[in-house]
Amino acid sequence: MKIVLNNANKDLVNKVIEYGGERVYECFQCGMCASGCPVASDTDHKIKRTMHQVLLGLDEQILDKKAIWLCTTCFMCLERCPQNAGPTEVVFALRRISAEKGIIPEAQIEVANNIYHLGHAVTVQKGIKLRDKVKAPPLSTAGSNKKYIDEIQKIINLTNAVKLLKIKKDWKPKGDEVIACD
Ligand code: SF4
Ligand code: SF4
Fold first, then answer.
1. Which ligand 2 atom lies nearest to the CA of residue 70?
2. Quick one: what percent of the chain has pLDDT higher than 90?
3. Contact 123, 175 (CB under 8 A)
4. Chain centroid to CA 16: how far?
5. Calpha distance 30→83 (Å, rounded)
6. Rounded to an integer, what distance in angstroms lies between the CA atom of residue 119 and that of residue 115?
């Protein structure tokens, strides 16, 4: 079954389809996706509602709220969807659309810069210092060797991520204080 809303703004749904959410029209709003979503009950990210908003062409309501960035990309909604409507792919497409418009939460920019410069989504600098202090063996991580960082950057540079995720060459990590290893 395919549901098509004749009077809806089609720009958003067409872009979502172009960016990988080609089965979005199969959604018949059963809610199975949201029933298994690990963030639905505690955050503003409501995947069933997002699917509906895409079909209605409500791009500002989706993008400006930034709730799509709270999705953990666990694929539970994709597993549960009886229509194989690809809700996770729709989230990916929406994030790309959002990034192209420059709408990205600061936390995502931080994570992207952490990965690019340190090889980690969160900083481990404080943990490294603590290990030094107690004379523990050095921590071997993706960021321990410049060769690995060069490879990570080489891969990322081949994508559009540097521009879309606002990766800065002169970036300095700020997350040391949130490492819970005191
Ligand atoms: S489970 Fe599939 S069909 Fe049901 S609301 Fe979610 S995306 Fe739509
Ligand atoms: S992939 Fe995202 S939207 Fe789907 S169930 Fe997981 S967290 Fe929820």
1. 7
2. 67
3. yes
4. 15
5. 9
6. 4
